[in-house]
Amino acid sequence: MQALVDTKLAEQRKSLMRLLTLLQQLTQMIGHEKLIQTTSELAFHSESPFTFVIVGEVKAGKSSFINALLGTGKEICKVAPAPMTDTIQQILYGEQEQEVILNPYLKKLYQPVEILKDIAIVDTPGTNTIISHHQEITEKFIPYADLIVFVFEAKNPYRQSSWDFFDFIHDEWKRKIIFVLQQKDLLSDEDLRVNTQGVQDYAKKKGIEQPRIFATSAKAELEGEFESSGFYPLRDYIHQNITGGKAAYLKLKNTVNTVMTINQKLAESISVRQRQFESDKRFRADIRDIMDHQEAKTGVQIDQMVDNLLLAYNSIVQEKTKDLETGLGFFNVLRRSVGSIFGKESGIKEWLVKEASDFELRLHKSLKDKLQHGITDVADAIQLMGKMVDNRIKHSETILQNSDEIFADIAEKRIQILRELQESFQDFMSNSESFYDKNLMEDSSRITPNLAAGSGIAIVGVILAAAVQGAVFDITGGVLTAVGVLFAGVTLGLNKGKILRKFEEETAKGRNMISQDVKTKLTEYTSRIRKRIDSNFAEFDRMLEYEEKTLQSLNSMHQTIKSESELLDHSIQV
How does strand 119-123 pair with strand 106-111? Predict the structure, then answer.
């Protein structure tokens, strides 16, 4: 039977080592130095004896209590009127007495005491000490404690510093705790009963359903008054629950519980980090939705502008077609030809030049206002896109704070990226070069780089207007020139039909240029500005990509540790 028990314990320890390895990997993935150290020390302490950590205020009688508990008749822990325990002392089994000083705050005392083969005792400075580092160092030992022995001064177990430290031990690490009212010899039986009940009430109020409380007198125990010292019930409790063959399993279970506690702490912070990531993804999706909406709205405005331009263009073309049909009639051509001989009237060529000039003038006059209004709408839509994006950046949600216990560095990095995004986008909005488009500039000879010397997005209107004018009005220079060449190269009787057909062909090209080229240029320009706006988010997008991959790994590792630690915890029977 003993072999079966040992085999089971060995398997459980093997499972524990896997858990500790996984936990170390998780903390290393997180990159939190204190957690890495904590998990590393946890792995080390998992191989150490069952550990009692003795805590309490200065002069509560902790040192005397330890000396009495060990029962060697020697003063292993120094006792004096002034506080003596100025370091943490680990009391361990050793064949010979030995003191090893590890650093100014920690030393090991080896003693050939039988009980120390099953347990180790950690004597800590007072919870109310003002000596630097003591509280910090004491707290570092709590995660590795198997049993916390809370020593109170029997005549006053209500000091706030003691119960504050109790909150840390119980709430933070869920350690198993027993209470000792030391120096009971200084109280009457009634006062001791009242204070014992007071500690019991306090402990229940703070979440311990069945507090174990022992009233002791180290003085009586050391003086041989064993019946009245109160140490017998305490030793019996230790024997029944710890040293009587249960220490190894209790140690195992306590370590598993510590793994679960650390893993739960990590899960809570990972959850906050996950919520921040989801919020940032929504924020980024909102930015894209804003730009999609504004780009679509701009597209509608471009279509409306082109439709208005075509309506005006078609109206002028129809009127000019009628003028040409009339002017190229046989008698009108004959009249101008004869009149030009006698100097009474301009010739047909001069008349055609005049018609071409009139055509361009009427196009310019008619389309100018429509261009200006249409371009203003397009520029306003692009400007609104930028302003809406800027406003959304300013109101992004911060969930993961740079005061987070685990992910403070990640939170700070995110805040920095967001701050840089705000600054770069504000610079983008105020810099006219952000909206200067080299392609549009090169498309129109009417534009010079000086046009981009303005400030902000207002220059967009000038750039677009000039580009559209270059596209629209370039058509008018060649429309009737081609007609005039055709007229000069054919006989009078055949000219009218061919001239009108040529006019129709050339004006159709102009119509196509307005409906296709102008729309394409403006649409492409809008798309390029959208991409420039989007490029400000490059670093933010890289952060999101990193966060997504990292959180998948962290959550997966956490779930593995959670499930395996729960299985192991349930398998350990104490």
Answer: unpaired
Tokens linked to 289: 């939705």
286 C-beta neighbours (distance < 10 Å), count: 15
Distance CA 368, CA 374 (A): 10
Helix or strand run (H / E) with residue 559:
helix 538-571
C-alpha 93/C-alpha 110 separation (Å) is 5
Question: Domain locations in the chain?
Answer: 1-47, 49-245, 269-558
pLDDT along the chain (574 residues), means of 10: 61 93 93 85 82 86 90 80 66 92 86 87 74 57 84 90 81 81 94 95 91 95 93 91 81 90 92 95 94 90 87 89 82 69 64 78 77 74 84 89 88 92 86 64 40 41 50 52 54 66 81 80 84 92 96 97 96 83
The pLDDT value recorded for residue 9 is 85
pTM listed for this prediction: 0.72
Q: Which residue matches tokens 């939190």? A: 32
Side chain identity, residue 519: K
CA gap 88, 104 in Å, rounded: 9
Its CATH architecture, for the domain 49-245, is 3-Layer(aba) Sandwich (3.40)
